[in-house]
UniProtKB/TrEMBL annotation, chains A, E:
Gene3D superfamilies hit by this protein: 2.40.50.100, Nucleic acid-binding proteins, P-loop containing nucleotide triphosphate hydrolases
Listed InterPro entries: AAA+_ATPase, ABC_transporter-like_ATP-bd, ABC_transporter-like_CS, ABC_transpr_MalK-like, ABC_transpr_MalK/UgpC-like, Mo/tungstate-bd_C_term_dom, NA-bd_OB-fold, P-loop_NTPase
This protein's UniProt keywords: ATP-binding, Nucleotide-binding, Transport
Family, per entry: Belongs to the ABC transporter superfamily.
Protein name from the UniProt record: Carbohydrate ABC transporter ATP-binding protein, CUT1 family
Entry keyword annotation includes Protein biosynthesis: no
Keyword Transmembrane helix tagged: no
Domain ABC transporter, residue spans: 4-234
A single Gene Ontology CC term: ATP-binding cassette (ABC) transporter complex, substrate-binding subunit-containing
UniProtKB/TrEMBL annotation, chain C:
TM annotation in the entry: 17-38, 81-103, 115-137, 149-173, 193-214, 243-264
Domain of life: Bacteria
CDD domains registered for this protein in UniProt: TM_PBP2
Protein name from the UniProt record: Carbohydrate ABC transporter membrane protein 2, CUT1 family
TrEMBL record, chain D:
Membrane topology term: Multi-pass membrane protein
Domain of life of the native organism: Bacteria
Keywords assigned: Membrane, Transmembrane, Transmembrane helix, Transport
Family designation: Belongs to the binding-protein-dependent transport system permease family.
InterPro entries: MetI-like (IPR000515), MetI-like_sf (IPR035906), Sugar_ABC_transporter (IPR052730)
Keyword Transport in annotation: yes
GO annotation terms (biological process): transmembrane transport
KW Magnesium (keyword) present: no
Record-given protein name: Carbohydrate ABC transporter membrane protein 1, CUT1 family
Residue ranges of every copy of the ABC transmembrane type-1 domain listed in the record: 57-268
Compartment(s): Cell membrane
Length: 348, 396, 277, 280, 348
């Protein structure tokens, strides 16, 4: 049982508040992904859970035990550090074995575990090297292997795959998920790669400026962002926002067309994902002027002007378009979302 | 300005007095420096081998000057008629030339805290003490006070070798070198071992007995007069000085001499010699006595206002030298570079017999060999109290 | 769910107390002897020789004043400072580049050099003093601040090389590489990146060089006559002086050194908390 | 990078040491191997056959063996303490560094004033009524007490330099490694032993070599507290050079000190070697 | 003029060869992206260009000048390090100003440039902090700003945005491109993010095991990989490969259907991108059994079994599929590629 409960945890560095009263529960065996802008406090939160940082306020419980005052070693955790922290004075093998040696594990078992984790991370041929002889991505994989070898109850991973190429990442990602599921580990995983987040997470928590903004399953977060921040943050590129002018109860005027929206008094915004747009006939949908065209492989990303606002759409790369062209973009109706202009919260 | 590079008057207070009260009167000006013997010797040797230097006058004990005799200029043209001839002869350092001019002299005395007199063995006369009485005295005191009150300067800088060479051995054997391994010598060391039982064990750290006298750690001791002066000067009424004890062969005592030489590299030879002349003036010699507690080498009239230490030691020295059984001992002569190793033989003997507790006879045999080898190497003829010899002074 | 708390705050508090008392103990251990020295230096000669001794000084300045009124004390102090500063500059100036080379390059002869440099310090100086003095007398370096500083540098240089070597080794080369790509020459990168980061190490070897020079007696006694250093001035004759003067002299010597260490102590910590993360 | 750069950097120090060390050293070394103008080992024979040689050698080694490990432990403790402190760090560092400024002559004097019969130790014991009469500690009859006093004085005097070097070295170890160790279940001690110490190796090496070499040259403190009772190699060197005035034998003694230092330096270099690859 | 020419550059670390005779030309003002698996030698190549590593062989020319023997400072380059190398003893401001100070630039100009770059990287409020007080992403941005402030002729960037969240990355990316275009800088940019590579690059060079495998414009690399390695490396997820059995001249049998292919004697493989597949009627296309379903937001990634081989497809997330379902996938015909089984090279 390794449920993690974070109760009203706050952290200030001098005058700067990195975390504002965070509440969060990660159930046993859950794979929780933390997403958030750079500097929003993800690392700080992990460090508090690990016991490397003392919270200014609040409590941390792991597996029903209050742990704030316990040293990291008694919390049953392992961690992958954002900057690896691979020991330079130890070989890769000894790095991975480090935690096991601390537990005075027998050599054959150490050997077995190290080899297994090294294989998992594709670094089995590097076991004799020192960290100074590794590339960035190799070092990062050592850091991950070191944490996995511990087979901890809780694993905290701070952007563990950020320096790997897409292919390896894809592979590592599914290996990770498999291994962690098998060992019934509760995981908190920080990433900035949304594909990774979507594909790994049982649940995604989105952080912003030291707050948790939404905590839900991946599809929900993607489809129904609880706040404008989440909508503008998740998705690559993220949702487009357009001002909406109310023309009647539940009726709005957006970028030249009339749309049906929620019946509310608040000033609200119209939002749609770039991939939820299709090209349509002139006269229909939102009319846009292309500014930039970026090829993405199978698709192209066009950045356009819609009523003076910047607006992105992803269309099939077969469409031969160039900057200056005019497009008509029709949103899929059930994919349109609305946000309160003041509170930033989603409006149904 | 003449640089007076001297091993004497090293205690800062004495150095200061030398500067302020003794050499200040020399017109050309004097820079009186009193380094430790290591730097003293190193610089002297360095200047001699470099062939140039800053030192005008070298001051030191007989032994110090011996070490640099090769580079000392001939001072025969200085008028030393006021100095007793046998003293002046020491300054020739076994050459034809006057290598150094005697500067001042001193000897060793016994000192007792007045509290110690209560334990003086019956029938013993302070002015005619014997070694046996000294032992009884130290013993009585140790028993009466619950701890040894006799002290002996056996520290690293203590002048213990002089005690063996000039006092203990001659008193028992009538000799310093010849009878080194005789039965009498064996007896002498046995007596000293007896005495040592009642000596404060910290003696091996004692360099200047005046410190232990002043802080009452020691009530009875033997030391160089310059090294007990402070006791009299700080607590004039608490101590008495008296002659050294006598043994079967008499009351052996040694006079030590300090001298002044001029290195051949002296920047201004004439001025250096002028300084030596100045140092020999009776007034200067008196001032030197006040500063260092070393006695003049020329005859002077003692004024009344001399320091307490001089007042105390003067009569004791007079009594000692005039004693019926007086047995004067000279400083080693002709040992040259081996002076130090000659002293070391006596120190080694002491350390092995007394401190390490080895047997006396075998130790004496072994050290006698070492001594003989040294004498052979130096080819030094005997000096008082040993009878003059042809060639190297023999160790029987 | 249980509320068991394995290490209650009281235990942590106890640990804290153990730590604090340990620190206090260590402080007492270093300070007490100094205090006793000061007690002796500030007592009358009688008190210094008396028994039992008082642990509170009577603040009698006779002994100290004896030294302070010594003719030329100030001059000697000034000489000492100059010699020590020149020694410091020379040993860092010559030693730091060597330490840097040893920590940053791999070249044939590296280990041998490091070893030989260290070995220069394993030979007793008093024996070297004679040939050195002869040399200095011949070339006219005798009795000069520079001459003495050169000898002291011989003593301090091996340590400067060694200390700077070990500390430069602790600074990631990558930071220097970054500086290279930002337009630094090696020297500039050293000055702008390595030096500030190595400040504590440089300060350590500077302090050490200073202290070595400050406390060195033998060479000072041989090589200086008119330009005596304070140590040569006071210390060479302390062995032969009465106790109270010994203590006063020692105190007079120790004090400036302590002031110096106090002055540079902040460099020992220069980059603390910044370099550390 | 041009290949000559490291040599260029070593040049000033090398030239300096050749002039001011190698030149005089060669002269002294030659002196040790010559006797009456011809090559011989006579000086070494004379030195080693003297009855104090063995004792001096033994005492020197014994002192180093007793003092250095304790100093190592203490300096590591002090450095760690200093690093741990949040408040008053620079004050404490200063206090710990104070003995650095104290010459060995002064240190000997200070400890003598504590241990001598009428010294501070006896004063306090008498004042507290624990003893009636002052005890004599530094007697030739109790060489172990002398040894102990010398040990204390040496430890007190010369731990600071090690501490300062280690403090500086510790400051350069990035905190992240300690944190990683902590997360991977290392106890305080393991963290120290498995991470801090290995990463501190260069500084440890320096501190140890420095300390060991100086330990073989102990002199003033030993003389102050032990008188002639505790001959050490260095005091014998002095004795032969200045009292017995046999420069050849003194030079031979110095060569022995050098040889001993060479051996131990090599051992330390070997034991604390950091492979090139393992440097950060 | 800052054309970079790399001629036969090789690099060995002891027995290990990190680069095998690399030849490459980056034209003046070109934006070249280096892609490659972790440990393939990207960083090593950059370091050789920068002058931080001496090549074991070969020559490096910048702007028509041979520079192998020149120190970094004289090569007119700036570099962003993979692990930042932000100076810990300087504030963010002084870090960014570092290179300018070296040039003895006047304070107002320094101020201007630092502020501009800091704004560009959104770190203007951190200028007074030390690196120890920054988050990972913030540190990385300082490293980028520091290089940009130099306004060098050549800028080398080693995964400069790897620790940033998607949104920020998107923004930084286009800012970067704009700034570098404006200042006419030649850029080499290492990334493992293919979207980034596609959208930034004038040209992409794909490295593998110390070799350059393909060097072409992004669409070309994506659409027409020169080698199986590139095909299997680029794309997220990458191309699918299926064994092809020749049934006649230019006719092949692949996973149960007949396909027309190149007329060659070599044994070749069939390849298609996951996103170039559409759902089709049973009986048509490749028949697949779903093993894993991963939501990606607008789409879902399905991993299937096709004739025992693993096969991925990206389909619209509206398709309600679950593991065990059978699918029929039709590849867009002009998107099918063929590779020689032996040489791994593309076959037309
Ligand atoms: N000092 C060294 N000794 C031995 N091998 C080394 C050394 N430095 C790098 N290597 C090896 O050289 C290869 C190339 O390293 P490099 O850092 O260039 O990789 P990279 O392409 O940047 O990888 P990544 O994307 O993981 O950062 C790696 O396999 C690495 O292990
Ligand atoms: N020691 C410190 N002093 C002051 N501010 C700090 C300190 N450490 C971190 N911060 C600030 O706290 C905030 C949260 O930092 P944290 O490292 O948790 O960010 P993060 O979410 O991990 O970001 P990234 O994705 O860039 O790594 C940042 O804005 C950072 O600047
Ligand atoms: Mg972070
Ligand atoms: Mg790399």
């Amino acid at each position: 049982m390794a449920e993690i409960q974070i109760k009203g945890v706050a952290k200030s560095f001098g005058a700067f508040t990195a975390l504002h009263s965070v509440d969060m529960t990660i159930s046993d065996r859950e794979f929780m992904v933390l997403l958030g802008a750079s500097g929003c406090g993800k690392t700080t939160l992990l460090r508090i859970i690990a016991g490397l940082e003392t919270p200014t306020q609040g409590e941390v419980w792991i597996g029903g035990r209050r742990v704030d005052h316990l040293p990291p070693k008694e919390r049953g955790i392992a961690m992958v550090f954002q900057n690896y922290a691979v020991f330079p004075h130890l070989t890769v093998f000894e790095n991975i074995a480090f935690g096991l040696r601390m537990q005075k594990m027998a050599q054959p078992e150490v050997q077995r575990r190290v080899n297994r984790c090294a294989e998992l991370m594709h670094i089995e041929q590097l076991l004799k090297r020192y960290s100074g002889q590794l590339s960035g991505g190799q070092r990062q994989r050592v850091a991950v292997a070191r944490a996995l070898a511990m087979e901890p109850e809780v694993i905290l991973m701070d952007e563990p795959l950020s320096n790997l190429d897409a292919l390896l990442r894809l592979e590592m990602r599914s290996e990770l998920k498999g291994v962690l599921a098998e060992s019934k580990t509760t995981a908190i995983y920080v990433t900035h790669d949304q594909v990774e987040a979507m594909s790994l997470a049982d649940r995604i928590s989105v952080m912003n400026g030291g707050h948790i903004v939404q905590s839900a399953d991946p599809v929900e977060v993607y489809r129904n962002p609880a706040a404008r921040f989440v909508a503008g943050f998740i998705g690559n590129p993220p949702m487009n926002f357009l001002p909406a002018r109310q023309t009647g109860a539940g009726r709005y005027h957006v970028a030249g067309t009339d749309v049906i929206g929620p019946d509310t008094d608040a000033r609200i915004e119209y939002a749609v994902r770039p991939e939820d747009l299709t090209l349509t006939e002139p006269g229909q949908g939102l009319s846009a002027t292309i500014r930039v065209v970026e090829p993405l492989g199978a698709h192209i990303l066009v950045t356009c002007d819609v009523e003076g606002a910047s607006f992105r759409a992803i269309i099939d790369s077969d469409a031969r378009v160039k900057p200056g062209d005019r497009l008509n973009l029709a949103p899929m109706p059930d994919r349109v979302r609305w946000f309160d202009k003041e509170t930033g919260l989603s409006v149904q | 300005e003449v640089l007076f590079w001297s091993t004497q008057a090293q205690p800062v207070e004495e150095t200061q007095k030398m500067r302020d009260e003794v050499v200040a009167g020399f017109e050309a000006g004097v820079d009186y420096q009193a380094p430790e013997s290591g730097p003293w010797l190193t610089r002297a040797q360095a200047e001699l081998s470099a062939g140039s230097g800053a030192v005008g006058v070298l001051g030191g004990l007989h032994g110090d000057l011996t070490a640099v005799r090769g580079g000392l200029a001939d001072l025969s043209d200085i008028d030393i008629s006021a100095i007793p001839a046998e003293l002046a002869a020491l300054g020739k350092l076994d050459t034809e030339q006057q290598k150094y001019i005697p500067w001042m002299q001193a000897t060793f005395l016994m000192v007792a805290n007045k509290k110690a007199l209560a334990y003086l063995p019956e029938g013993a006369d302070l002015n005619a003490l014997t070694y046996d009485q000294l032992i009884d005295w130290a013993k009585a005191m140790a028993e009466g006070e619950g701890g040894p009150k006799f002290g002996f300067p056996a520290g690293p800088k203590g002048l213990k070798h002089r005690f063996f060479q000039g006092f203990l051995l001659p008193s028992y054997t009538g000799s310093t070198v010849n009878e080194f391994r005789s039965a009498e010598a064996e007896e002498a060391w046995g007596k000293f071992r007896e005495l040592w039982q009642y000596a404060n064990p910290a003696s091996t750290n004692y360099n200047f007995m005046q410190e232990q006298l002043v802080n009452d750690e020691v009530w009875l001791t033997f030391d160089h007069i310059a090294r007990i002066s402070e006791a009299f000067n700080t607590r004039p009424d608490d101590f008495v000085a008296f002659p050294v004890p006598a043994g079967p062969k008499g009351r052996g005592f040694m006079t030590v001499v300090a001298g002044m030489g001029v290195p051949e590299t002296a920047p201004d030879m004439a001025e250096a010699k002028a300084l030596i002349d100045y140092m020999l003036k009776p007034e200067t010699q008196l001032a030197t006595l006040r500063a260092t507690n070393f006695y003049p080498v020329v005859s002077v009239d003692m004024p009344d206002d001399v320091p307490a230490s001089v007042k105390a030691s003067g009569p004791a020295i007079a009594t000692m030298t005039a004693a019926e059984d007086a047995l004067p001992v000279l400083l080693p002569m002709g040992m040259g570079d081996l002076n130090g190793q000659f002293n070391q033989v006596y120190v080694d003997t002491f350390e092995q017999i007394i401190l390490a507790g080895r047997e006396i006879r075998p130790t004496l045999e072994q050290q006698a060999e070492a001594l003989r080898a040294l004498m052979d190497e130096a080819q030094a003829p005997c000096w008082l109290p040993d009878a003059p010899s042809e060639g190297a002074c023999p160790v029987n | 769910m249980s509320d068991t708390v394995t290490a209650p705050p009281s235990v942590r508090k106890a640990g804290r107390w153990v730590f604090i008392s340990g620190v206090v103990l260590l402080c007492v251990w270093t300070l007490l002897p100094i205090y006793l020295l000061m007690v002796n230096a500030l007592s009358t000669p009688e008190e210094v020789n008396g028994f039992p001794k008082s642990f509170i000084p009577s603040f009698d300045l006779t002994s100290l004043r004896f030294f302070l009124e010594f003719e030329g004390v100030l001059n000697a102090l000034w000489n000492s400072i100059r010699v020590a500063v020149v020694t410091m500059i020379l040993s860092i100036g010559l030693g730091a580049p060597a330490g840097y080379a040893l920590s940053r390059f791999d070249f044939p002869g590296k280990e041998v050099f490091r070893f030989l440099v260290v070995m220069t310090r394993a030979f007793p100086l008093p024996l070297l003093a004679l040939p050195l003095a002869v040399m200095f007398l011949r070339v006219g370096l005798d009795d000069s601040i520079l001459g003495l500083a050169l000898v002291h540098t011989t003593l301090a240089l091996p340590f400067a090389v060694l200390i700077t070597f070990s500390l430069f080794s602790g600074i990631p080369f990558e930071l220097e590489e970054a500086a290279f790509t930002l337009g630094c020459t090696r020297i500039q990168a050293f000055r702008k990146v390595v030096l500030p980061l190595a400040a504590p190490g440089i300060a350590a070897s500077a302090v050490f060089a200073f202290v070595i020079s400050w406390n060195e007696v033998f060479a000072a006694a041989v090589l200086t006559i008119k330009n005596r250093t304070l140590t040569a001035f006071l210390m060479q004759s302390l062995d032969w002086s009465p106790l109270h003067l010994k203590f006063a002299g020692a105190a007079a010597l120790v004090l400036p050194a302590l002031i110096f260490i106090f002055a540079v102590r902040k460099y020992l910590f220069a980059m603390w908390g910044i370099a550390n993360r | 990078m041009p290949r000559y750069i490291p040599y260029l950097l070593l040049l000033p120090a090398t030239v300096f040491l050749i002039i001011f060390f190698l030149y005089p050293f060669t002269q002294v070394a030659i002196e040790s191997f010559t006797s009456n103008g011809s090559w011989s080992l006579a000086n070494f024979q004379k030195a080693s056959s003297h009855w104090k040689f063995g004792e001096a050698f033994k005492n020197t080694m014994l002192l180093a063996a007793l003092v250095v490990p304790i100093q190592l432990a203490m300096s590591l403790t002090m450095a760690t303490v200093v690093q741990k402190l949040q408040k008053g760090r620079s004050a404490i560092l200063y206090i710990f560094a104070i003995p650095l400024g104290i010459s060995d002559l002064a240190a000997g004097l200070i400890w003598l004033s504590i241990f001598e019969q009428s010294g501070f130790l006896n004063s306090i014991l008498v004042n507290m009524g624990l003893i009636e009469k002052p005890i004599l500690y530094l007697s030739y009859q109790s060489p172990w007490v002398i040894l102990f006093a010398i040990m204390l004085a040496e430890i007190w005097r010369a731990t600071a330099i090690m501490m300062v070097i280690l403090v500086a070295g510790l400051g350069l170890i990035p905190r992240e490694y300690g944190e990683a160790a902590e997360v991977f279940g290392a106890t305080r001690w393991q963290r120290f032993y498995k991470v801090t110490l290995p990463m501190l190796r260069p500084s440890l090496q320096t501190a140890l070599i420095l300390r060991v070499i100086l330990a073989f040259e102990v002199f003033a403190v030993v003389i102050a507290l032990g008188g002639t009772q505790m001959p050490v190699l260095m005091s014998e060197t002095f004795n032969w050079q200045f009292n017995l005035q046999d420069r050849g034998v003194a030079a031979a003694y110095a060569m022995v000190i050098l040889a001993v230092s060479v051996v131990f330096t090599l051992i330390i270099l070997r034991a604390l070697h950091v492979p090139k690859e393992a440097r950060s």
